[in-house]
Amino acid sequence: ARIREQASLIGLKVAPVVAYCERVTIPVVAGVIRPMILLPIWLATKMNPEQVLVIVAHEMAHIRRFDLFVILLTNRVNPTRDNQKHLALRRALSDAANLAIVDQVVVKRTW
What is the pTM of this model? Predict the structure, then answer.
């Protein structure tokens, strides 16, 4: 129920599936058409449910902003990923996305 509420606050029409996964070491969004959030197992033991929900909200914001789609597009522009300008662009996009997401999640959580 709290995941659905958070998805609604972030602006998602459908709450993504959220699952713990032994194969990931950091929280990730997987999938473009039906994105899901994969959380590392250690989160369940090291963080309380409220902290996990904040992490899930952060990942939902990536879904809302279509960040995975943007990453796929930048990889199509230069699939070799060895060009310094390409790497700088990806880094800048990633930094901007993370800053915007933090702002979005904090604003949503404080109201």
Answer: 0.68
